[in-house]
Amino acid sequence: MQEFGGPEGMAVVALPAPVAARSQVLVDVEAIGVGGVDAVIRRGDLAAYGFREGHVLGGEVAGVVAAVGDGVDPAWIGRRVWAPTGTGGGYAERAVASADEVVPLPGRLSAVDAVALGSAGVVAHFGLAHARFAAGESVLVRGAAGSLGIMTVQLAARSGAGVVAVTTSSAARGERLRALGATHVLNRAGEGSPAGFDVIIDVVAGPDVPSFFDVLNPNGRLVVVGAVGGQPPADFGARVMVLFQKSLSFSTFSANTVPNDDKRAVRTAQFAEAARGDLTAVVHEVLPLAQAASAHRRMEAGEVFGRVVLTP
């Protein structure tokens, strides 16, 4: 990403090869997950958090460990792994990751499927837990066509949700989400709901957040797990106060608050489930790294169902 703004500010450039520092592994990258947060960083929306022009995007990769830093067991070398690259560095041929966060891949799980599941699965799992979701409750997944929304639909359905509703942009996408566990398909405004919801998992955020408090049941919980639609209005909490007698709750959730051991345990289990066919990794398209800008254009145009994956 050479400059903030649209995808045209992205370019492939030559940089010095990374080196595994202490407690890190170096990964020969086979697949790179393209996430909504990458677009948010690219637009410059997170500049206040230290992101600068020239930043290498990409928060997760899968591939083979090529080298390890001091303090890391050399037995990792040659193993296929999923690896989080933190705040960036994944859009590359080689990337480094903290050794205590990498997860070995089952033999039957491809690198492409791993990056469609790795980050999304953990956020979906712990996001539902953060919402105190319980079997029998009704769940609305707002912005369900991306990898995070798709994983939330699957996990909620198999955990016994009474209703799993989704917002999405087309009937065709709605049918695909029904095949993954959705029971009701609503438009993007949440219209068409048969009743209220106990839990809303919101991947979108943006200016429409206040209207979704209206479709929560008493004691309902809305948890924002992504912000691809930008920030909610500054006064969005006023709607909660208007609905004071419903005892509604609003919160945000970031996987950064979950201990690494807990995240690794969930990812290990989810990768095994995907290898057995019990979880579905939905990959929209696999593109070469040189077409990263095209991947972002398709994502922002709303063309992507699942995850776009890049390969070096």
UniProtKB/TrEMBL annotation:
InterPro entries: ADH-like_C (IPR013149), ADH-like_N (IPR013154), ER (IPR020843), GroES-like_sf (IPR011032), NAD(P)-bd_dom_sf (IPR036291). Keywords: NADP, Oxidoreductase. Residues 5-310 form the Enoyl reductase (ER) domain. The lineage of its organism: Bacteria, Bacillati, Actinomycetota, Actinomycetes, Pseudonocardiales. The keyword NADP applies. Pfam families: ADH_N, ADH_zinc_N. The keyword Ribonucleoprotein does not apply. This is Oxidoreductase. It comes from Lentzea cavernae.
